[in-house]
Structure formats: C-alpha cells, structure tokens
Design a protein that fits this description.
single chain, 281 residues, 5-stranded parallel β-sheet, 35% helix
C-alpha cells in the first residue's frame, strides 16, 4: 500500500499490523497473553475476574428478565474464549436455572479466532457467534442484553495528530518507507483534507500557544463508532467496557508529548510503534 500511495495513515498501519489475516499480530498468535506471551491480563492470572463478572451479570439479568423474554450475554473481543469459559462455568455451577435460559453471543469477525474460541468452549451448547454488531442486532431482536468487552476498545486502530508549533497547524502522522524500514512522516491537514476531530478544533488558543512542537494526540473513530452502534442495539440492558485509559483532564501534560500509545513485546513496553509489525501488540 505504501509503495502504491507513498504514505498511509497510522490507523491503517495499526489495522494491518494487528488484524491482517496473513500476518496480523492478533490473527497469527494465539498465546500472546500470560508469562510465555507479551503481556498479562486480568483473565490470564486466573478465573476470579470472570467469576466476578458472572456474578454481576446474573444480578443484572435477574433485574432485566421479563416473562418469555430471551436473555443474552454478548462478548466482543473474546480472543481465545477463556473469559467466556470462566463466566459460563460459574453460571452453570451457581445459577443453573439462569444458565439454562441464556444465550452467550461472541462478536468475532476473525475466522481464525472463532476457531480458537470454538475449541475452548466446545462443552457449552449455548454459545453463538456473529461477525459484527449488525448481525447481532438481527439475531437477537426482542431480547434483554448485556453487551461487554474487556480490553477491546484500546485495540481499535487510532489516528495520531501532531502540532506544528511554527506553522500553528495540526497534521496527521502517517507511515512511509525509509529504505527497508517503516518511518513516520507528516500528512498536512490541508494537503490531505483531513477532518480533524471536534475536540482538537475546539482547543483554546492559549493552550495551542504553549504546546511544544510535534505534541501528539490520538483519536479512535472506530472505537467511538463501535460504542454508539452497541448502545443502539440495546432496547433494555447494560453496555460495559473494561479497559485502561486516562481522564479527559489528563490528555494534555508536559510529561507526555508523544501521545499515549505503547507497544508490548515479551513483557517490555516500547515507544517504537513501527518496529516488527505483526510481532508486537
């Protein structure tokens, strides 16, 4: 793509590095979590996290239930299915009646990850798979839902915007080739007709006067769109995401001028986001 166009957005680079069916990090590596992987999550340290979620989901579903109405738990971003297994195991053991009444949906566009999940959850007959939110909406009409995700939204591709202190203008960080390596390059706002995010356009001039050159912010329209679409499905229910993040007030700080993105490989964090695509998160 770079050879053809000269430059791609970082969002496109991130999408390919993580999700390309042939070489993407999440597509080709199953054991990326845990001591032998690249990072540890609440799920990889044991079953307690899933059991706590299962207890809370059971409480919510008891409140939501109407006679003859179907109950759905929907997980997005299930990776290898371990969290789903922890939740379903707890419900089967401690809420058997509720367990018999629910369907557990997994939103999974990747055929490879679906295969991993089906193997992990083969002992549960109430698990269903859909590729995306529109398919879920068609499959689960007239149902009370709990839609949730764990460490999903920060895996959506992001656009990176930088501040040109001399020109007093924002640009988008793009990715190009420098010999055999990927390299950062600027995509100027006017040249690319970038539509800047509303919150950037609304920044006060007093702040822009003191922002250092190349100060970088990230935005994820894909994550925002997913959240809106998921909320739009809910006639009744709960929408929950569990993730890491900063408050809006912490978006600007003198200690962090290069944005919030980090790469992880073998439990080491790195600022080199363009290195080893497909080999690091």
């Amino acid at each position: 793509e770079i050879l053809k166009s000269g430059v791609i957005s970082f969002a496109r680079f991130m999408e390919l590095a993580l999700y390309c069916p042939e070489t993407g990090y999440y597509e080709t590596k199953k054991d990326i979590v845990g001591q032998r992987g690249d990072f540890i999550t609440s799920v990889s340290t044991g079953g307690l996290f899933g059991e706590l979620l299962a207890w809370q989901f059971a409480e919510w579903l008891a409140e939501l239930k109407i006679q003859n109405e179907k109950l759905k738990i929907v997980e997005a971003g299930a990776h290898d299915g371990k969290l789903a297994g922890d939740i379903l195991n707890w419900l089967q053991m401690h809420r058997p009646k509720l367990f018999s009444e629910i369907e557990y949906f997994i939103i999974e566009p990747s055929a490879q990850r679906q295969q991993w999940q089906r193997e992990k959850l083969k002992n549960f007959g109430n698990v269903r798979w859909v590729a995306d939110l529109p398919t879920l909406s068609r499959s689960t009409q007239h149902a009370a839902h709990i839609i949730f995700s764990n460490e999903l939204l920060d895996a959506f591709p992001v656009h990176r915007y930088g501040w040109d202190a001399q020109q007093k203008n924002w640009f988008e960080w793009g990715v190009t080739l420098d010999g055999e390596k990927f390299a950062w390059t600027r995509i100027t706002h006017h040249a690319s007709r970038i539509t800047l995010p509303t919150f950037i356009l609304a920044l006060p001039s007093a702040l822009l006067e003191v922002l250092p050159d190349n100060y970088t912010l990230e935005t994820s329209p894909a994550a925002e769109n997913w959240w809106r679409a998921a909320a739009g499905i809910l006639a009744r229910g709960k929408l929950v995401t569990i993730d890491y993040g900063y408050s809006a007030e912490a978006q600007f700080t003198p200690a962090r001028t290069r944005g919030t993105l980090r790469a992880f490989h073998r439990h080491h964090a790195s600022d080199d986001l363009l290195a080893n695509p497909g080999e690091q998160d």
